[in-house]
Structures are given as structure tokens and as C-alpha cells.
Amino acid sequence: MSRIALLSNPKASGNKSLLPRVRSFCAQHQDIFHYEVEHVDQIGMALRTIALVQPKVLVINGGDGTVQAALTELYLGGHFGDEIPPVAVLPNGKTNLIALDLGAEGDPIVALERVLELAQTDLMEHIVSRELIELSDSGRVRPVLGMFLGGSGLADTILYCRHKVYPLGLPNGFSHLLAAVAAAFTIIFGLRAAFLPQRPQPIKISVLRRGEIQGSFAFLMVTTLHRLLLGGKKFGGGVERNGVLQLMAVEWRPTTLIRALFAAFIGKLGESPMSGVHLEHGDEILIEGERGSIILDGELFEAINGRPILLKSTQPVPFLRLAA
Q1: Which of 89, 141, 169, 194 maximizes the CB count within 10 A of its CB?
Q2: Strands 284-289 and 309-313: what pairing?
Q3: Domain limits at 282?
Q4: Residue 71 in domain
Q5: Residue 232's pLDDT is what?
């Protein structure tokens, strides 16, 4: 039995320079079973093969799309039966939100060394449970699973960063900052231009047994992660926790966005109610609109008339936390 199975996607942007180091590291450690795919469509076959070696840990090395496809296949494919191995995610790709939530940051090889070190123990004290977001709509045969969903203005900003800023070749951190500043200027000053993010379309968000909210939102997030984009922590005492899906929606108004950003800066966002900032927990969320952009772990979806997007929480999946 291999201690570690490593699933790599060579086409992921971060692997262009990383993969030769990963291959060299794996060649030096016989406890690692390394499987490379050329496309996310091959991940199902990859996991069927990986299940045969019965790894103690499954490590995913790829961008957001690779992680999402692997989690979907891992949860729905049934390749490991009832014994899904704990999942570790190497810091790779553009955003790395899932890796950060699991304590993996910095050099991916260092993270892989940490996984190998932990795999030599019984692992129990390092395993954490995370529910996944199951996304489905009327036109989708099979649900898609992930851990972070961005919508409305946030999705438009992500797309703006992807199509307008990343091609400039700037460092990831600076690219994200530049996109966020452009989005803030669009909202606060009402600017409209081809080189700025577009204004989000109105949508309706329904949380099971909690009611609904409607409008245009500068920021919409649904996640099961514990480290969030704004404020860096789970919602605090002002929110009734009656589900594992964490929803945050910030209305498209300059004063609301400024107050939300200031509260996030001082680490207070989510600790108490704030006008124009909607915080909810639930196990089912429905998103409807004429054409609302939704991004789940890097993949784009649209909530359009007659085809709303339904989000559900799954049963917990084991993950390996790398932080001490």
C-alpha cells in the first residue's frame, strides 16, 4: 500500500514550473504513487486506479478546476466505497482558498514533504471534516461539488481578473488587489467602462426556512470553508447557525461596501448585524436571476430564468490539515 497517492494536472497554470520538481520529489520517495492527467475528464479513471493502491492520503496537485473535479468524482464516483482517504490540497493555482483553509501555503514541495511526514503517523489528530457544496440545476445531469462559491459582483470581479488582469503577467497577489480596487471604484464612484468590471445583474437568493433576499450584490459568497475571504474567520455571534452553508451577500451600495470593507479590515465583519450585509447559514440555498454569474471553485455557471441554481450541503468528507 502506498502511503500517498498524488493526483497532478500538468495543464494547471501553477504546474508549468512546479511539475518537474514534483516528479523529481516523487522519484526519490517510493511511498508516493503519482498519477498525472491531461484533462479533468480523466480524473474519474485516475481515481479508479488510485483506489486500487489503497493510499493512506490522497493529495491533489492542480488548480481550482482540478480540485473541484476531483472532489466531485471522489464523493459521487464511489471508487473508494465507504473508506474515502483524507484529502490534502497542495498550494497551487491562482487562489488556493481550499489549500489555505487546510493550512497548506507557501512552497508546494514543502507542503508535500509535510504530507509525507504526517502519513507516517496514525493521522487521526490531523484529520478534519469539511462538508462540500453540491451545485445542481435543471440542465445538469450530475451535480458538481466544491467548497467556495462566488456570485454577483464577486463573480464578475473574478472573471474580470481572469480575462483582463491575469494576461498582464502580474504577480497573483497584485493581480487580485488590482481587480478588487477596480471593482471598488466601479461601485463607490459608479464608473462604467470596458476596462472595469461590469455591474452585476439582480438576483433572488432563497435560504431554506430562512426567507429570501433580492437585489444586486457587490459581493456574494457561499462556502463551507473555515477561513473566509473577508475577515478570515467563520461568521460570529450575530448569525444563527442552522446549517453548514455559510452565505454572505453585500448589497450594491457604496456606503454598504465601505462599511463592510472597514469591518473586514478590523476583523469584525460577521460579528453583529449590519444594514445591507446579509449573513445566513443553511443546508439548501436557491439562486435565481435573469443572468447571474456564479463561480464554484473556478468553474462558471449562470442562474438564468427557468433554471435556478440549487446549493446543498453534503455529508462530511475527511481532509488532512497540514498546519501544526
Answers
A1: 89
A2: antiparallel
A3: 148-296
A4: yes
A5: 46
